[in-house]
Specification:
mainly alpha
Length: about 100
């Protein structure tokens, strides 16, 4: 049986296996962080505002942290997450391409 083609996305990671569901989750997280790029969020805030589970958001943020797409700052026992310049560039390109297709 041939593999299903995954739609090109800028949420593709080099060090992890990229599944359709994983790409969708990372796209949701990156779009949210890109929309509020000047702010930092906890995992719980990202999960709640996007209707995702805490554990899924945590897993994907840690994967994206390894690839320098997001940053984490620890303040008073809380991790605050924000999109990096690299993450902004890649998601912006993908958003522009996806709106051109529509």
């Amino acid at each position: 049986m041939p593999k299903m083609k995954i739609e090109r996305s800028e949420a593709i990671l080099r060090k992890k296996r990229n599944t359709r569901k994983g790409l969708l989750m990372r796209n949701i997280i990156l779009k949210f962080l890109y929309e509020y790029k000047q702010k930092r969020f906890t995992i719980a805030e990202i999960a709640e505002k996007n209707g995702l589970t805490y554990s899924a958001v945590s897993y994907h943020l840690k994967s994206m942290l390894e690839e320098k797409v997001v940053t984490r700052e620890i303040m008073e026992r809380r991790s605050l997450w924000q999109i990096t310049g690299l993450g902004q560039q890649t998601i912006k390109k993908w958003l522009e391409k996806s709106t051109e297709k529509s």
